[in-house]
Amino acid sequence: MIEIKRWLKIGELKILSKNSHRSLVGQAFINPKTNMSEEYTFLQGHKDSMIIFPITTEKKLIILRQFRHAADDILIELPGGNIKPNESPKNAATRELLEETGYRAGEIIIFENSKQWFDPSALRSIYIPCIALNCKKISEPQQDPTESLEIRTVSINEWLTMIQGGFVADSKSLATTLLSLQHLNKSY
Amino acid sequence: MIEIKRWLKIGELKILSKNSHRSLVGQAFINPKTNMSEEYTFLQGHKDSMIIFPITTEKKLIILRQFRHAADDILIELPGGNIKPNESPKNAATRELLEETGYRAGEIIIFENSKQWFDPSALRSIYIPCIALNCKKISEPQQDPTESLEIRTVSINEWLTMIQGGFVADSKSLATTLLSLQHLNKSY
Predict the structure, then answer these.
(1) Domain boundaries, chain B
(2) Which contiguous run of DSSP H or E holds residue B94?
(3) Mean pLDDT of A35-43
C-alpha cells in the first residue's frame, strides 16, 4: 500500500500573468518521493461559481445554449455563474438563475459537501453544484448586454438522452446532473 | 427566440505565457451583438486526455488517490492521462490504465461523441471519456518515479455512495461516471 502524502509548498505563489478574471500562477512544491523542488503552473480563478440544475413547477429542466470562447463553439449547458464577494452560495445561485433565465427558484439545495474542481491539475477554480426546485418564470432574462443566451426547457429524460447522444460537451453540467439525480433519488 | 451566433475571431492567437504543458493565450473576438472587439484569455492545454471508467473481471471499479497541485490537495479520481502525439484514444487509454494501475483492459469503449470541455470558458482542453471492461491486474503500476498514486478497487455502488457523500471532488470523474452508467444501462 502506497501512502499518499501532500506536497509541501515552498516560497510564495508567483503571478506570471493576470487579467480581471484569472491569473496564471507558478508555485514550487517539494516532491515527497524525491525531496526535490518542482515548479507547477496553473490558472487561478478569482471567484468560485455555482452550477444549477433548475427544475420548473412543470418538472422541466432549464438549460442554455451559449457561445464559449475557450471552446470557440456554441455549447449546451446548465445555468450558473460566479459568486460575488460577500454573497452566499444560495444567493448567488438565485441571482444567476434569475438573471440568466428569468426564472425564480422556489427552493435551492446546495450540495455543500460536493464542491468540484474543474480540473485539479491545471485550474485552481471550484464550482458548487446545486439543485433549484419549483422554478417559476417571473421575468425576461436580465442578461448582460454583451451576453447572448438561448433558454430552453426539456424533460429530465430528454436531457439524459441529449447527454447520451453526445450533445452536451460541458463536463460540469454532466457532473451536476449526476449529483442532482442522486439527490432526486433517481436510482443511483 | 434568441438566435445564438458564433463569435468570429480577429487576429492571431497571442501566447502570453507558456510552459511544457500549457500556455496562457489571448484571442480577440467580435461580439455579434455589439460588433465590438473583445479580448479573451484562456489556458490552452497542449494535449487532449482520456478519462477511464475501468471495471475489473470481478466487477469492481478501479480508482486512484493522488496529490493534485492546482487543488493543493489529495483527490480521489478515475484513472486517465494525456494522449501522446500520433496515439489513438484507445491506445492512450490502454497505456495509461496499465501504467497507472497495472491493469490491462479486456475491452475499451470510447464515448467518441462525448468529448468534454473541462471548463469551456477558461480552459481550452478537452478529455475523451471511455469505459474499460474486463480489466485484469497483470503487473505492478509503472508509475513515473516522481508520481505517487494509490490504487483502490470498489464496487460501483460504493463509488456512487462516495460521490453522494462528497468524497469525490473531481468534476471529470463524475461526468465520466454518468456517461458510463448510461452505457451500462443503469437506468438513466
Answers:
(1) 8-45, 49-183
(2) helix B89-101
(3) 89
pLDDT confidence of A188, banded at 50, 70, 90?
A: very low
Alpha helices (H) along chain A? 89-101, 156-164, 171-183
What is the spatial distance between Cα B115 and Cα A66, in angstroms, rounded to a whole number? Answer: 17
Q: What is the pTM of this model?
A: 0.94
Instruction: Tell me if ipTM is over 0.90.
Output: yes
> Which of A17, A41, A65, A177 to substitute to test the interface with B, most B CBs within 10 Å?
A41
Name the average pLDDT for chain A: 92
CATH code 3.90.79.10 for A49-183: yes
B23 neighbourhood in chain A, CB within 8 Å: none
Give mean pLDDT, residues B56-82: 96
In angstroms, what separates the C-alpha of A156 from chain B's closest C-alpha?
A: 10
Contacts of A6 in chain B (CB under 8 A): 67, 72-74
Q: How far is A26 from chain B (nearest CA, A)?
A: 10
Q: Is the backbone of residue B73 left (phi > 0), alpha (psi -120 to 50) or beta?
A: beta
Residues of B within 8 A of A188 (CB-CB) are 160, 181, 186-188
In this structure, are residues B159 and B177 in contact, taking their beta carbons and an 8 Å threshold?
Answer: yes
